[in-house]
Amino acid sequence: MIFTVAIDGPAAAGKGTLSRAVAARFGFAHLDTGALYRAVGAKGGDPVAAARSLTAADLARDDLRSLAAGQAASRVAVIPEVRAALLEFQRRFARAEGGAVLDGRDIGTVICPEAEVKLYVTASPEVRAHRRWLELGGDEAEVLAQVRERDARDMGRAEAPLKPAADALVIDTSALSIDAAVAQAIAAVAARL
Ligand code: C5P
């Protein structure tokens, strides 16, 4: 069976949690596409060359989740040649036999416009910054400033900007429990299977 679930949205909206839950529930493979951009940013040097030569070891680095790695990712993610270098890998993953969940910023709009299910997961900047701060610590006001800066860069870029696909189901997790958000995502997939 070929079946793609596209999950897009801003940083710390809950995409990762929902993606893992949907993948586990239906036995689908899961690709966190943000990790590709984080790995390119963390590799340093020429980002286009880094994107073209990305290896499993680059993706396994344990410093990819930091705020700094997120900022570096969003800076290399504006470069069209970086996005082009990562496109084929994501499309193949999405259409591989057995079903796939991909989470990112442009999965429903650019990578898989034909995805069977498209979710746009969001929450207020304050709620998202609070979650990131609980996870990573530091100064909460600084975390909020970084969340806003990354939103602006991801939504404002010319190439594949972050926005909901026209046919995406929007899930706002600001006031939702994890269980309630997961239930909505699973129901959306079950309805299309
Ligand atoms: O989702 P995550 O926070 O790991 O993504 C890091 C950055 O990578 C995002 O802020 C965005 O700039 C970029 N990204 C992207 N397209 C994707 C996934 C991530 O541009 N599909």
How are the SSEs ordered, and which strands pair?
Elements (H helix, E strand, L loop, with lengths): L3 E5 L6 H12 L2 E4 L1 H10 L3 H6 L3 H4 L7 H10 L3 H15 L5 E5 L2 H5 L5 E6 L2 H12 L3 H17 L12 E4 L5 H13 L3
Parallel strand pairs: 1-3, 1-4, 2-3, 4-5
Helix pairs in contact: 1-10, 2-5, 5-9, 8-9
Oligomer: single chain
| Strand adjacency order, main sheet | 2-3-1-4-5
SSE order, one letter for each helix or strand: EHEHHHHHEHEHHEH
Biggest β-sheet, characterized?
Answer: 5 strands, parallel
Helix/strand-derived category reads alpha/beta
Low-confidence spans: none
Total strands: 5
pLDDT averaged residue by residue: 97
Estimate the global geometry from the Cα principal axes.
globular
Bound molecules: cytidine-5'-monophosphate
Query: Helix count?
Result: 10
Give the % helix.
Answer: 40-55%
Give the termini separation: 10 Å
Radius of gyration: 16 Å
Proportion of beta-strand residues: 5-15%
Outline the structure in words.
With 193 residues, this protein is of the alpha/beta class. The protein has ten helices and five strands, in the order E-H-E-H-H-H-H-H-E-H-E-H-H-E-H. The chain has a five-stranded parallel beta sheet, with helices on both faces. Helix 2 packs across helix 5. The longest helix is centred in the C-terminal third of the chain and has 17 residues. It is globular. The N and C termini lie close together (10 Å). The mean pLDDT is 97. The chain binds cytidine-5'-monophosphate. The site of cytidine-5'-monophosphate (C5P) has 15 residues, from helix 2, helix 5 and helix 9. Keywords: ATP-binding, Cytoplasm, Kinase, Nucleotide-binding, Transferase. It is found in: Cytoplasm. Its EC number is 2.7.4.25.
